[in-house]
Every structure is written in C-alpha cells, then in structure tokens.
Amino acid sequence: MAERQGGSRLATLDHYVAAVVVAAIASVGATALIERDYWTRPQNWTALWLFTAMLLLGEMQSVGWLRLKDAGEVTPGWAFSFSILLLGSPLLSMLAMSVACMLPDLRRRKGLQRTVFNVAQTVLALFAATVVLTVCGATGLISSHTSFSPGRMVATIAAASAIFLTNSVLTCVAIALSLGIAVKSVLRRAFTLTLSADGALLVLSPLFVIAANFSLATVPLLGLIAYLVYNSSREALEREHRAGHDHLTSLLNTPTFHDHVNGHLATSRASAARGCVLLLDLDGFKSLNDRLGHQIGDEVLRRVGAVLIFDQSHGAVAARLGGDEFAVFFPDIDVPAQAVAEARQLAERLRAPLDINGFPISTSASIGVALLDRTSSTSEEVLRHADLAMYRAKRNRTGVELHVAQQAGEAGGGRISLLADVADALDRHELWLAYQPLVNVRSGKVEGFEGLLRWTHPKLGLVMPSEFIGLAEHTDLIDSITERVLLLACQDAKLLMAKAPDLRIAVNVSTQNLCRRQFPLTVRRILGEQGMDPASIEIELTESAFALQQEIATDAIKELRDLGVGLAMDDFGSGYSSFSRLLTTPVTSLKIDQSLIRNMTNDDRNFLVIRTVIDLCAALGLRSTAEGVESIETINQLRALGCDLVQGYGIARPMAACDAARWLEEHPVGVPITMDSTG
Ligand code: C2E
Ligand code: CA
Ligand code: CA
Questions:
Q1: Which of the residues in the chain have pLDDT under 70?
Q2: What residues pack around ion ligand 2 (CB closer than 5 A)?
C-alpha cells in the first residue's frame, strides 16, 4: 500500500515538473512579446554584462547541502538577475539565471529532472516579476535619467516579492511531493529560513541598478556588499543546520525529529497513512567502544548514520537520538507487517561488517517498531512505544519487535519510569530473592540455592529480573542492586543454613559490576559485616564477564577468587561460548544453559555438546550444573553423563526464603531423584 502511495506521489511529481516546464516555456514567449521593442531601446550594456558576470560568479557559490533538503537556498545570484530585470532586460535575466542554475547542478551531477525544474522555476519567478513591473508600468525605467519615485519603489518591492513567492512556492511543492510531506510545513520552514536573506539580497537590486547607472566604478563595491550579505546569511543557515542536526552523523537530532514527525501528524490527521517509527539501538556498542576506543566507536556511529541517510528514500527521515540510539520515520508505511519487514531489511543491512581502518567490525542492532495510530498521537508517544518494543527485542535477542498496544510495562510508563521505580524499590525494600535448589544428581542432596531477584512493584505486581536488570545495567543502579542482592543473600543464608549448615548460596552478578574498581572490596565488606564465610557464597557471572579484555575485570575476578568465594560461569552454551576460555579463567563451576538442556533429549548435537562440556568440567576439576531441568528423563541422562548438580522446575521452582526453609525441612535427606526411587 505504501509502495503504491509512494509510486503515485512520484508520478504526481513528474506531472508537476512537466507543468512547471511548460509554463516556463510559455512565459519566455510571453516575455518576448512584452519586450518586443527591446532591441530598439537604449541599453546600458556595460552594466548588463557586469551584472551577468557577477551573477554567474555568485551562483557557483551556492550553499550546496541546502538544496532540496531544507527548501530554498540563498545565492547572491537573485540580486543580480533582478538588477538585470530592473535595467529593462527580463529575457537576458532569465537566460543568465538559467545558465547560472545549470552550472552548479551539472557540476554536482544532479539528475536532469532536477536541473530542468530549477531552470524552469527560476524563469517563472523572473516572469512573475516582469508581469508585476509591466502591470505597474515600471519596466526598464530605472536609468540615470529617471528618478526613483515612490510609485516605482512600490512596484519594485512588489516585483521582488513576486520573485520570492514564486520561487519558494514552486520549490516547496516539489520538495513536498518528492518527500511525501505537507506543502504547508515545507513552506513554513522555507519562509522562516530564507525570507530575511533572500529579502535583503532582492532589496539590494534597485540600489545596484542606481549605482551602476551612476558610475560603473561602484560595481565592485556592490559585489562586495552582495557577498557580505550572502556570507552572513549562509552562516546563519549553517548555524540553524547545526542546531537541528547531530554533529557526528549529520542526521536530525531529537527535537528536530519530533518536530518533523509532529508536523507530519498535524497535516495527515485526515488521511489514512500516518507512518511508523523504528527505534534502533546498537548491540554491544558500549563494550565495542570500551575495547576499541572512542575513535572507532565514533566511526561505527558515523557509518550507521550513513546507512540510515541512504535509507531516507520516499520521505523517510532518520535521527540520532544520542549515544548508539537512532530513529527512522517512514511516513508511508502504515501496515504492521510492512513496517516489520522494513526493520528486518534495515537490521540485515546493518549486519554487514564495516571495514574500519582495514579491520572488519561487525555491528548489529535491536529495532523496536511502532505505528502512528489511534494510540499514539504525538511523536514522543510513538517513540516511547518503539522504545518499549526495542527493549523487548534486545531482551529476547529477537532483533526486531513490533509494539502492540497494552504491553506489560506500559502501565508503568515505559523504561524510564520503570528505572525511576527501581531506585524507589531499593529505598522501599520491594526487592527480594527467590531461591531455587541446586541438587546433587547422584545423591539427591540439596547442596545449595541460587538466589533470583524478584520485585514486588506497588502497581505492576511481581516484576521479573528480565524486565529491569538489563535496564539497570545501563545505569549506576546496577551497583546498588547487586549490593542489595548480596546483603539479602547473606541474611537469608542464615535462615536456610539453620536447616542445612553446609549449603552454598549462589548470587548473580552483572558484567557491569566487575568494571567497578571497588567491587571486590564491596563483596568483602558485606560478607565481613554479615559474618558470612566466603566459601559459602558462589558468584555467577555470564561468559561476557570473562570475555572482557579489561584489566579491571580480570583483576576483579582474581580478587574475588582470592577472597575465597566460588565463581560460576553462567549460561554456558547460550551465546558464543568458548571452550578455551574455560582453561584460562579461575572458575570453580560451570552452569550449562537451559537452552541446551531443554532440547537435550531430542537433539543429538545438543546432547554431544552437553556430554563434552561435562567431560571437560570433570577433567578440569570444575563442578557442572545443568539449568532448566524439567523432566525425569533429563535428570537420568545427566546423571549418566556424570553431571554434578541439577536445577530446574523439575525439582523445585524458585521460592521465597521462608518457603525454601520449609521446603528444606520437608526434604531432610534430599530430593528423591535417584534411579531407584524415581523408577
Ligand atoms: P539465570 O541466572 O540463568 O537464572 C535462571 C533462570 O531460569 C531464572 O529465571 C529461573 O527462574 C529460570 N528457571 C529455573 N528453572 C527453570 C526451568 O526448569 N525451566 C525454565 N523455563 N526456567 C527455569 P529468572 O528468575 O526470571 O531470572 C532470569 C535471569 O535474570 C537470570 O538468569 C539472571 O541472569 C538474571 N538475574 C536473576 N537474578 C539476578 C540478580 O540478582 N542479579 C543479576 N544481575 N541478575 C539476575
Ligand atoms: Ca544464574
Ligand atoms: Ca543461567
């Protein structure tokens, strides 16, 4: 549907350009008719040629990047072509301005259609001025012999306005058609952007004519004035461009993006197509930046920006919202499936490795997709929806997710407000740990518990760690959370160890925590304050923590080991696990990821990997734990393979500390999972 709309819009653009060209040709004929006595009139040829030369010179200097993108542009050319017109030579002014228009366009290899249109609209603008002057009876009358009466002054201002209006309206309609945005919003922007500069240049024209008629020696001075006006207005435009764009990627910045989308919404309320927004967040950009340095990081952002700029066909606009977050708005896409397909294509394009200084660097992005529909009436709102979807894409590692109204978490106001709530949760003691037993697969003995974070949110109810840990990891909140987890684990351990003294309590620690210089000291302090034997605590870290090539993290891991706490490599087999890393990191145990365990019984390759991991653990003297164990068959197979511990719903679900204590009481000799007792 959007494609059809885009296609029909471009066909309209073709018709529009054709109409402007035909009108321009007709206007040249009409001008020739109006000026049929032209050659018989006396002309100030020297002034005419001088103005023409200055026009051509000036037009080569136009502000290139403003073309098409920002509607209208400032060139000193208009001042001189209008001067030629006022000198009584409309045809010559049209000819000179046409040539001046073509030169830079051809040099920059603009499309033929663009060049032809530019020439045609210039001719029409000058024709409009000619008509105004003719109607006012003021053609070709400014000479050294005539006085500049108030009537002529009004006629001149009216003619200058005719040039400005015709030029702006014709160009803005073309831009609006090619980008698929409302003419009104382009016009508003063009007027505010160029009125003062173009106005100043056009108003200079009669002065140029008077001065040239007075003495040609003043002409270089005129050139200087035109140049100065042009220069200061160009600077103003560049300032404006900088204020609205991101300096690193040249994409729009956040306020300009919102303005654009809100402008689109304001004009398209009546029509069906309202567009969609994609919100992109690069995966693992922070660690790339940390590991390879900011220079490479910036280059990656620039390249991603370039991919998005390239994507801005059919009126799409892209913005960098800050950091490694980008947004793209497609005004034509209003079908969910098409929006998702567009996002997938974009994700695919971004996956192509970037060649940066000869190094292939691969990036990927998680993309949230949201449509501008009844539930989102502002740009800010749709971006918040896309943000929620993006966060889900990141969390579930799905790459692309579509926002569907009334998703969980929305009631709480999205990620930002959820994050603010986490800070409150710490103060209000809404966080607690649920404990899931770790059971010896041979004896059934309960050897320990893993503490899993839970949050009883005052409005949303129970919130799982996957909803907020990833968010908190982007902020310093993760430090306070992990400290609280350690404290809770130590306090609850006393309750549990009262039933079984040699239990070990495992806690999850984020990779981010290891990058804090004081983290090992914090662990030592909390254990000391709580009178906890470090050997009773095991810290679970995902493989990414061990993969960090940073001194701080490596030191932290070593200091934690020296402290005497156990170290487990969590989720082994879920990502890009490296067997060789097992040899180089001081871990005491390894947890096989539930994704491998889940398919163990029906996937031979998984089975093979699990067997190899368990064998390797045995050879290295590491304890192996299988996570997500749900069935008795799995338990039996794991036992046969020589796995040490099992954890999962098949044994017990995570429970509050007091429930876990009661559960321990009910299982004084362990869980009946041996082959004899389970059959
Ligand atoms: P994890 O460390 O891999 O924790 C195991 C997850 O698997 C837990 O989910 C647990 O409830 C779930 N689980 C256990 N047995 C089974 C089973 O048989 N089947 C299935 N389908 N799932 C099972 P939970 O509690 O939602 O935790 C999710 C993740 O959140 C954890 O994965 C861990 O990475 C993170 N997390 C939990 N607590 C903390 C914490 O205190 N700090 C940090 N930094 N991360 C935490
Ligand atoms: Ca864990
Ligand atoms: Ca795990």
A1: 1-10, 38-42, 59-75, 104-111, 138-148, 178-182, 185-186, 189, 192-194, 196-197, 268-273, 310-315, 374-375, 405-417, 549, 575-576, 674-679
A2: 508, 540, 570
Exposure string for 64-92, b = 16+ CB within 10 A, e = fewer = eebbbebbbbbbbbbbbbbbbbbbbbbbb
* Ligand 1 centroid from CA 464, angstroms: 9
> Angle between the 414-427 and 465-472 helix axes, to the nearest 10 degrees?
90
Q: Which ligand is nearest to the CA of 472?
A: 1
Whose tokens are 């259609």? That residue is 113
Report CA(450)–ligand 2 centroid distance (Å).
7
Which residue's CA is the closest to the ligand 1 atom numbered 34?
Answer: 508
| Distance from C-alpha of 75 to C-alpha of 54, rounded to nearest angstrom | 11
Kindly compute the dihedral angle of the four CA atoms of residues 604, 609, 615, 619, in this order, to the nearest 10 degrees: 160
For ligand 1, atom 15: residue with the closest CA: 648
Q: Which atom of ligand 1 is nearest to the CA of 571?
A: 3
pLDDT at 2: 42
Cα separation of 404 and 619, whole Å?
49
User: How does pLDDT run across 22-45, given as a tens digit for each residue?
Assistant: 999 999 999 988 877 766 666 778
Ligand 1 site residues (CB inside 6 A) read 436, 452-453, 464-466, 469, 485, 508-510, 540, 570-571, 594, 627-630, 648-649, 654
Domain 254-410 classification at class level: alpha beta
Ligand nearest to the CA of 438: 1
Q: Is it true that domain 416-666 has CATH number 3.20.20.450? A: yes
The whole-angstrom separation of Cα 523 and Cα 567 is 13
Q: Which of 438, 452, 488, 673 to mutate to test the pocket of ligand 1 (most atoms within 8 A of CB)?
A: 452
**Would you state the pLDDT for residue 3?**
45
Ligand 1 atom nearest 507 alpha carbon: 41
The full set of domain ranges for the chain reads 2-243, 254-410, 416-666
CB 540 within 8 A of CB 507: yes
What is the 591 CA–ligand 3 centroid distance (Å)?
Answer: 6
**515 CA → ligand 2 middle, Å:** 19
Question: What's the CA gap between 119 and 13, in Å, rounded?
Answer: 16
Tell me the β-bridge partners of 322. 325
Q: What is the CA radius of gyration of the chain?
A: 36
The predicted-structure confidence for 658-679, as pLDDT tens digits, reads as follows 999 999 999 988 888 765 444 3
Tokens of 122: 């210039």
User: Which element (helix H / strand E) includes 317?
Assistant: strand 317-322
Nearest CA to ligand 1 atom 11: 654
Handedness of CA 266, 270, 273, 278 (dihedral sign): positive
Query: Cβ atoms within 10 A of the Cβ of 429, count?
Result: 10
CATH 3.30.70.20 fits 2-243, yes or no: no
Q: CA-to-CA distance for 88 and 145, rounded, in angstroms?
A: 14
Kindly report the protein residue whose alpha carbon is nearest to atom 9 of ligand 1. 452
